[in-house]
Amino acid sequence: MLDIGPLELVALVVLAVLIFGPDKLPKLIQDVSSTLRKIRQFSDSAKEDIRSELGPEFKDFEFEDLNPKTFVRKHVLEKDELGLKEIRNGFDFSSEMADVTDAVHGRTSEPQSSAAPSAGTGDLLKKREKVQDGERPPFDADAT
């Protein structure tokens, strides 16, 4: 409901009671609800008039299709006659990037299951070596 939480709704009711008073509030609610009902009826009748003027070839016309995202999702992505899912999945370069990273670091790439961590993650999970007082920590090329 318009992204209003229960606490905000209670605050709005309390504010309405304070501004309009408890005696005028029921009349105000009736007026607002009747106005919203009239606006909805006007909108529905305008939609029906437009559909009737367009003719029988547009009998399945939906006004939501005027939104470009909805139109593309409904007419292009649902049918997928062009094979767009395969094209979109073809741009996933994460495995190729993992192979390049392994080659740069001199690691051998092993086939991994989807639940196993990536090759670079193992280095991050290792415990850090304790550095003695006055000694410089080891240089980490990945961190710079």
Automatic annotation (TrEMBL):
Protein keywords: Membrane, Protein transport, Translocation, Transmembrane, Transmembrane helix, Transport
Biased composition (Basic and acidic residues): 124-144
Record-level GO BP terms: protein transport
Membrane topology type: Single-pass membrane protein
The keyword Transmembrane belongs to this UniProt entry's keyword annotation: yes
NCBIfam families documented for this protein: PRK01371.1-1 (NF002374), PRK01371.1-4 (NF002377)
Protein's name according to its UniProt entry: Sec-independent protein translocase subunit TatB
Organism from which the protein derives: Streptomyces triculaminicus
Listed InterPro entries: TatA/B/E
GO cellular component terms, semicolon-separated: membrane
Region (Disordered), start-end ranges: 102-144
Top-level taxon: Bacteria
Compartments, record wording: Membrane
